Amino acid sequence: MNERIPLLKVDGLTVEFRTRSGVVRALENIDLEIFKGETVGVVGESGSGKSVLSYAILGILDAAGRVTAGSAVFDGMDMLHARESELEEIRGREASMIFQSPRTALNPIRKVGKQIEDILLRHGSVTRAQARERAIEMLGKVRIPDPARRYDAYPFELSGGMCQRILIAMALACEPALLIADEPTTGLDVTTQAAIMDLVRELGRRRNLATLLITHDLGMAAEYCDRIVVMHAGHVVETAPTAALFRAPRHPYTASLIAATPRVEVSLRQLASIPGKLPDLRRTDLPACRFSERCARRETACDAPLPRTHIEPQHMVACWRPL
Amino acid sequence: MSANGVSATKTAPGWRATLRHAQYVATDNPVTLGAFVLFLLFVLLALCGPWIAPYDPLASDTAAALQGPSARHWFGTDALGRDMLSRIVVATRLDFGIALCAVFASFGIGAALGSIAGFYGGWADRLIGRCADTIMAFPLFVLAMGIVAALGNTVANIILATAIINLPFYVRVARTEVNVRRHAGFVEAARLTGNSEARILARHIFPNVLPPMMVQISLNMGWAILNAAGLSFIGLGVRPPQAEWGIMVAEGATHIISGEWWVALFPGAALMLAVFCFNLLGDGLRDIIDPRRRT
Amino acid sequence: MLKTIAQRLFGALPNVIGVVIVTFILTRALPGDPAAYFAGAAATPEAVEQVRRQLGLDKSLPHQFLLYVGDLARGNLGNSLSTGQPVLPEIATRLPASLELTLCGLVFAMIVAIPLGVLAATRPGSWIDHLCRLLATAGVSLPTFFTGLLLAYIFYYLLGIAPSPLGRLDVVFSAPPTVTGFYLIDSLFAGDLELFWACNMQLMLPAITLGLFVMAPIMRMTRAAMLGVLSSDFIRTARASGLSRTTVLYRYALRNALLPVVTTLGMVFSFLLGSNVLVEKVFAWPGIGSYVIEALVASDYAPVQGFVLTMALLYVLLNLAIDILYGVIDPRVGVDG
What we know:
The structure holds three protein chains of three kinds.
Chain A: E1 8-19, E2 22-34, E3 39-43, H1 50-58, E4 65-74, E5 77-78, H2 84-90, E6 95-98, H3 112-123, H4 128-141, H5 147-150, H6 160-172, E7 178-182, H7 190-207, E8 210-215, H8 218-224, E9 227-232, E10 235-241, H9 242-247, H10 252-260, E11 309-312, E12 315-317
Parallel strand pairs in A: 3-8, 3-9, 6-7, 7-8
Antiparallel strand pairs in A: 1-2, 1-4, 4-5, 9-10, 10-12, 11-12
Chain B: H1 15-28, H2 30-52, H3 84-120, H4 122-136, H5 140-151, H6 155-181, H7 185-192, H8 197-233, H9 245-256, H10 262-289
Chain C: H1 2-28, H2 34-39, H3 45-54, H4 61-73, H5 87-122, H6 127-141, H7 144-158, H8 183-189, H9 193-230, H10 233-240, H11 245-283, H12 288-297, H13 301-329
């Protein structure tokens, strides 16, 4: 929140997927903004559309996916309506992404150093030798021991944590303004998770990097994010600064999520699970509030199109009966 | 394709569902439908060939030799004045017959051996695998040549050679399919109800293995016809004056360079159509049975 | 690296043993009188007996096998009936011709099939995709000998573009001095560009004929492998990193997709070596295929045996080379722990 103009502003983003069994309404009317230097967490269950959101912003959706409405203005340019060549310029240089399952996210038969080099050569006017030097430098920055030797390593020779560091090196090599981290710690052990997230935070701070952290792990979001966006079944249901969200969640779904998150002071038996499951997004009769069918606070008013209530300037909830 | 444990002798998708799916594939895939119609046409020719051929395929008439297609001889005549159309129609029976016998022999033996290997494992698996590997160590057509040359120039030996070189495919497919299902739920259920191992293999597992094998059979028919024709082309197997597509192309080879194209073209075209038809059918069958394996 | 090569060599041994055993069975252990085969159709009973003693066919089977293996080790593949010459030197002289033809056929097939496969994979379900698959199926349905005849008819007889399909070299030219036995390479070594071009022209139709048949499996595997690779995680990373479309397609996707294609080369060579015989007959190519066909016509048995053995051993060697090649280009192989 250092500038008045957000680095990335997503407005009314709606995404559909055409499949053999019908049209999946993956995202509907998503609003999101992120400012330079801040870390915004996007949390929700699997299938809530978190990853689809990031793919749509960068323009790397599946062939079956289509953006049917909305805009995503990044640094003055609408990513959703830009030409592929323009997007190719931005990807990896102004806005980067790291993924889950880091080992499969790397080219298995290409040396990791070369993969970093490929990005440097693509986006910068550097010579081969300069790119190689910078690649080794990046390997050092992400705390890979013996970076000059590790340059020649293949992904299968490295641990999951090291592969994720390589991905971070690739993403940050060209000093982007925005980093999208899609479940970067899934599949890593707890110690490595913390190390990776600490690395991202530290590197980000130095560069005033805006980070969009996508995760289903509320604990991680609480620890590393300035603001949190809660998603459910393709909708944004609540956005708030982290402290406010956890202290007083206003959306019933957010409250259930928090109640269901394992914490040290709560025994497993006391954890409440959220009843029901995500609605089938192929339905043509989806209700206006996609949580209403699982909500204990549901009433007739909930069939009307969702409001965007600002409880406080920074705290938005999309609910007719907020807590 | 999961098997329900109820009646394990049924193939996993019920036949009514398969029929509906076949209809869907047929309309979705007019090419496959066309191939099937062509296949029926060939079968008709094979069955009724000798009766519907306009001339005696062996009757030579040197006065009428090497005449191009005309109203009297739709496909022209060959060097000995024999009617090409009749010879081609009659050859259908021989070529199809050879392919059918060879493929079913290799299917029968190969599937049995592969099932045993996949089910019992151990030394049976190793032995059968070793034999299949040894066959595969040869370029297959070369091995067929060697077999026919060694055993003698007869149609029966062509069938034998083709059957032998096709064995490894069936052994491999059967072995994999049986191996995968060996510990499936319905097999365990059959064991618990007291079925002997052999009975389980024969009556429970094998019918489930059949569908992927059908694809293999159709593709193999085309390959078997090519093989038989190839062997005849180089003088192994079928001998003149028998009418067989391969040997007819060989007879036409010397003439095509000097412009008498019909002697080689029509039998070659018939060959190509037949093999093409089987390949398309095989692809279509593959789409019906397991759309995931489409390549 | 050397260790994996040694491992592969060792793994190929059972195949070599199997090949030797099978060829032994085919020649000595079959019903009928092998001596009569080797003596020829026109032999008198005394000649047959003489051949029987000469070849040791009167001894027990295990003994015969040892003799057979001994003969092979000494390079004795018997003598041709019609020429009286030993078989092995004749095969050795003719082998480069067949190899040149086979390799050119393979190169042609790959040059056409791989780009087609990539094209079909980048537009799945489109009319291009269907057309490619149809072409591939058609290619594999055409009998090789028929394709050869058709091509010769169209391009030589009708259009006059191709030279007369009568061997490796037109009569006005003489063969280049032998360095490798491959006319294309040897003519370049001799610096004779005109000769090189003439050899090339003679090679074209037979090589295309051979290649057409194996285009289908190569194209299908390329397409399938590309489709698989294009939907994998690392391609998504590459796209998200802004790498250009060509880089993603060729340096990242295709290189990975080629790995399974290399594994299909084994089957491809089986077809190529088999169809070689047919193509050599159609184009009067002086390789080992023509040699064995002449021998068959004359019921001359030793060359046939030599041919089968040579082709099989060549095939084992080629498969070995493919295995080793795969180990070289995939860095993950050889990490057997």
